Amino acid sequence: MPTAPIIAIDKVSRIYGNANATTVALKDVSLTIEKGELISLVGPSGCGKSTLLRLIADLDTPSQGKITVNGHAPEQARKQREYGFVFQAPTLYDWRTVERNARLPLEVMGRPAGEWQARLDKMLAMVGLRDFHQHYPWQLSGGMQQRASIARALSFDPAILLMDEPFGALDEFTRERMNMELLDIWETTHKTILFVTHSIAEAVFLSSRIVVMTPRPGRIAATVNVDLPYPRNFDTREDPRFFELVTQVRETLKEEFVGHV
Amino acid sequence: MAESVTSAGELDTTGHSPRRWLWLLLGYLVAFGLIAVVWEGSKALFAIPDYKLPHLAQIAEAFFRPTPKGPTWLILIQDALYTAFEAFVGFTIGSVSGFLIAALFQRYVHVRRGFMPYVIASQTVPIIAVAPMIVVGTGSLGAPPWLSKSIIAAYLTFFPVVINVLRGLESVDRDALLLMRSYAATDNQIFRLLRLPASVPYLFTALKIAATASIIGAIIGELPVGSTRGIGVQIVVGSQYNTFNPGFLWATIIVAALLGMIAYGMVALAERRIVRWKRPES
Ligand SMILES: Nc1ncnc2c1ncn2[C@@H]1O[C@H](COP(=O)(O)OP(=O)(O)O)[C@@H](O)[C@H]1O
Ligand SMILES: [Mg+2]
Predict the structure, then answer these.
(1) Domain count, chain A
(2) Which one of B175, B181, B185 has the shortest CB-CB distance to A89?
(3) Is residue A248 part of a domain?
């Protein structure tokens, strides 16, 4: 039985600028995302990935088109706290310890500390920060900071996780480990995850579906179903099918590039 | 986990070892020795008369000279305490009002545009010219004599607080704000949970400037005729009788300088106790 998509994007455009100079960040983008999917948006920088994420999150508004999140307008979804947002930079507040950073959304939303503390502890343990509750951000490595920000996004149990290149600033080893952790989180929490990256390999490794985007103007060039079985692990990266899919995505981007020259 | 973690405890210990204190003390002594050599050396070399530059011994002697009300150093400390009281009242009024003005300016851009020029203009007016008016004005209204000094201290205090706190409240980055927006936080929550804590280090920078400025303000308020108490009064006395007692003026200057340093040090101490989330400087 088909259910309503959790995110529906219908012919959305976003044009920045004034009368003199305009940038078409997104043009006629349509996409539907089902509940529980882990979708990656992949494409070179400037193709509008962040813009699309911000529009879904109601941190920005479309110039044209319509977005529906969980059956209503993005603004309502934001006010009902239906998504958690993870930025490329950890964006932790310097003056708060790891635990108090992760608790920030609960404080803003007025959720009773007693009831939610157990969940908060669980999320911090899940991202491997069990022993770092009382540390300040400067005392953590970049990878640990980003994990704290993921725990923060999960602390209030939103249905959707919007992640904008969360591992972009990490070294490759840390990034691969974080990818495994994210898959763990996805498999245990059944969240819908929209994940932005400019790494094709990362997109193939994580996602059930990849949305390939191209710039000038930003739009969707193709979507690729990733038929690698879950749970995925380090062997997945050596699977011949993994390489086929990486090549397929790369070819799509190349064709788009050549087609425009 | 392979990631390295520095615990706060490890880094903290080096700051307070007795050896460090000894080095610090040695540094102060060496600096004082150098100043003394340059002081006495130039006095001898250029034959500077005592009323222009007394011997260090004359200054020390001035501190211990007896007066009808007790030894000079005791009198000077009593006056300094009075000035400190005036300055503290002014500092408090100035920082609280400066903070409120900054918060108002941050929240309402139009208010800022309208009033900022006046805030800046207030500091370009020569305070020496305004001080007697304030002293005479409040005096004629029957206010206690210390109040006019406190007002001048507040006048010099509020400006650095407005400027720095405003910068601090605006110092939050775009993502930190978007994060709040993603939680559908109210403006008040954004202020309390993000802007206010982000401004704290800036506030302390301002308060350190304000602490010394408030002392200077109180002293300036004590200079006009009619004032009877405070280290500023002693400075006036010292300059009037400089030829007869060349060490005394410098003694009052030293006490005034110490007062400013203590005020600064107290704010710096409070800062270290309150701003604990920062990476320690090595
Ligand atoms: N606030 C903005 N104002 C003007 N132009 C913007 C703004 N945000 C993004 N853009 C432009 O829109 C395009 C897409 O940007 P972005 O969504 O950040 O791309 P990506 O995240 O894929 O790198 C770029 O050309 C960028 O310069
Ligand atoms: Mg981006």
Answers:
(1) 2
(2) B175
(3) yes
Cα–Cα dist B267/B203, whole Å: 11
Q: Are residues A73 and A196 in the same domain?
A: yes
Query: Does any CB of chain B come closer than 8 Å to the CB of residue A248?
Result: no
B71: Cβ contacts below 8 Å, ≥ 6 apart? B63, B64, B65
**Percent of chain B at pLDDT exceeding 70:** 94
Q: Say if A140 is an interface residue toward chain B (CB within 8 Å).
A: yes
Last residue of a domain, one of A141, A156, A171: A156
A163/A72 same-domain check: yes
Pocket of ligand 1 from Cβ distances under 6 Å: A 16, 23, 25, 45-51, 218
B196 part of contact set with chain A, CB < 8 Å: no
State in Å: Cα A84 to ligand 1 middle.
21
Residue A42's DSSP bridge partners are A197, A212
The answer to whether position A128 is within a domain reads yes
* ipTM rounded to 2 decimals: 0.91
Do A233 and A111 belong to one domain?
Answer: no
> pTM of the entire structure?
0.87
Q: State the residue range of the domain holding A178.
A: 7-82+158-260
In a domain, A15, yes or no: yes
- Whether B181 and A75 have beta carbons less than 8 Å apart is answered as no
CATH code at position A187: 3.40.50.300
* Same-domain check for residues A169 and A241: yes
User: pLDDT tens digits for A179-196?
Assistant: 998 999 899 888 999 999
Q: Which residues of chain A have pLDDT under 50?
A: 1, 261
> For chain B, what is the mean pLDDT?
90
